[in-house]
Design brief:
By secondary structure, this protein is mainly β. The protein is 2% helix and 39% strand.
Length: 468
């Protein structure tokens, strides 16, 4: 999701984007969108609908102190028997040792949107991309016209019942999202922080074309600091076309074992060489002006031979999944990654279940389901719910399971699944207003994934399952 306040200004800026390096074909590949099912608008308020192979096994509602009008649930990370769920007001730790009976271990109030999270060992990292008066959890909202604090907060979560605030790191333009990358030595890890910048601000005006790289000494997190601010996404020229990367990156997904990362940078998609974590290097830039508006996120397949980019048309605030809406806008694009590391567009995927005009719906956060020999991912679609889809055939992706709720209550304008990930046999969905949903998927196509047990999962830091 984008920063809420400058939506109009950023949307205007995006219209200025022009192509530099493009893989857009003369005619778009087939969407392979299945025939439309009955619209979600036929569902009653909050009514649940799901495919026969998926069911809800538990829900943990939001609770105090996350009971305000904008206490929205955000991203997820996992470690052992615990799920860490971000919220605009802080974060929650859930004990998911028994997925059918999850328990809240701790709720930590520490406002600062989006509060996206990742976890490594005893450390939890939390992104803050809204200005605060200072870096403390007690701080009030700041102003773009002042000198606010934005960046990454670090917590010690060795005691899951009493997380301890350790350190903050201010980053240029804040941290809308971050990506954790292990260092070449086990005592170091790095965070790539992404942020759009603010079109109406003097402190961090758009276009903001770099990232901040934070180095974290694992045994001494108090010494964490920014060690590089590479300007990766500067304007480029190809022939007679001037390239313009609109306003920084929204999200970067790394595949450290492959030495690669895929960056979704609002107006473009980028392939990066991260073999040296402190000196990332651009390999390729792709654009798709005809079909994509806001490049939001990326996912590699397990073999590193494909990349799925998503388009967050409308920034998560709009209804883009209606029966008459485009099958490519607000959707996923599947790129094959050739042996010589070139991205080539193959197809698109969009959920086949039309949503109502009051339901914000667009492609959002997802990750792979570890099925040997197949490319399958689970993905959040806001009010479009949770979708499991197969892109083994890049040109003919198809949905194989889903879960969704009907329209929101009259006093709510934003809802649905923010992030949906598969972890140790279940799907976990962070619903913006409903809390944590735990889903069970039973299907011959995906059942082989149940045999794999992970000790940690951060969706933006991919690791090989070794099962392809």
């Amino acid at each position: 999701m984008r920063r809420v306040r400058p939506l109009a200004a950023l949307a205007g800026l995006l219209l200025m984007v022009t192509a530099c390096t493009t893989t857009e074909p003369q005619s778009p590949p087939p969407s392979a969108r299945p025939s439309a099912q009955s619209p979600s608008a036929s569902l009653g308020q909050d009514e649940i609908r799901h495919s026969a192979n998926m069911r809800l096994v538990a829900n943990v509602p939001l609770g105090p102190p996350f009971d305000g009008p904008e206490a929205w649930g955000t991203d997820l990370a996992f470690q052992g028997d615990y799920a860490f769920v971000g919220n605009f007001e802080g974060f929650t730790i859930h004990d998911i040792g028994d997925p059918a009976h999850p328990k809240v271990t701790a709720r930590v109030k520490c406002p600062g949107g989006q509060n996206d999270v990742s976890v490594s060992g005893d450390l939890l990292f939390v992104s803050v991309d809204f200005p605060r008066e200072d870096d403390t959890c007690e701080s009030g909202a700041g102003s773009f016209g002042e000198n606010p604090w934005e960046g990454v907060r670090i917590f010690d979560v060795s005691d899951k019942t009493h997380p301890r605030y350790v350190k903050s790191v201010r980053t240029h333009c804040g941290s809308h999202t971050h990506t954790m990358i292990p260092g070449k030595q086990a005592d170091r890890l790095y965070l790539y922080t992404s942020s759009a910048g603010q079109p109406d601000a003097t402190i961090c005006p758009s276009p903001h074309q770099g990232i901040s790289i934070i180095e974290v000494p694992v045994e001494n997190p108090e010494a964490a600091r920014v060690v590089a601010e590479p300007q990766l996404f500067e304007s480029r020229r190809s022939g007679d076309d001037a390239g313009f990367s609109s306003s920084g990156c929204h999200d970067i997904t790394a595949y450290p074992e492959k030495g690669l990362a895929a960056a979704a940078c609002f107006g473009d998609g980028w392939l990066l060489d991260i073999s040296d974590p402190v000196k990332p290097r651009v390999l390729q830039r792709v654009t798709d002006i005809a079909n994509f508006s806001i490049w939001h996120a990326a996912t590699f397949n397990d073999t590193g031979t494909k990349v799925v980019f998503s388009d967050e048309l409308g920034g998560g605030m709009m209804a883009t999944c209606g029966a008459s809406d485009s099958p490519t806008k607000g959707a996923d694009a599947i790129y094959d990654l050739t042996p010589d590391l070139r991205l080539e567009l193959r197809g698109y995927f969009k959920i086949p279940r039309p949503q109502g005009k009051s339901e914000n719906c667009v492609a959002h956060n997802g990750a792979l389901i570890p099925v040997p020999g197949r490319d399958i991912m689970v993905q959040a679609w806001y009010m479009g719910g949770v979708s499991v889809w197969d892109f083994t055939d890049s040109r003919r992706p198809r949905e194989i399971a889903f879960f969704e709720r009907g329209p929101l209550g009259p006093k709510l304008s934003l809802g649905g699944s923010w992030s949906a990930y598969y972890y140790n046999g279940h799907i976990y969905s962070s619903d913006i207003t409903k809390g944590l949903d735990i889903l069970r998927l039973d299907d011959p196509l995906t059942d082989p994934a149940k045999s794999l047990r992970l000790t940690e999962l951060n969706a933006q830091t991919q690791r090989s399952y070794g099962r392809a």
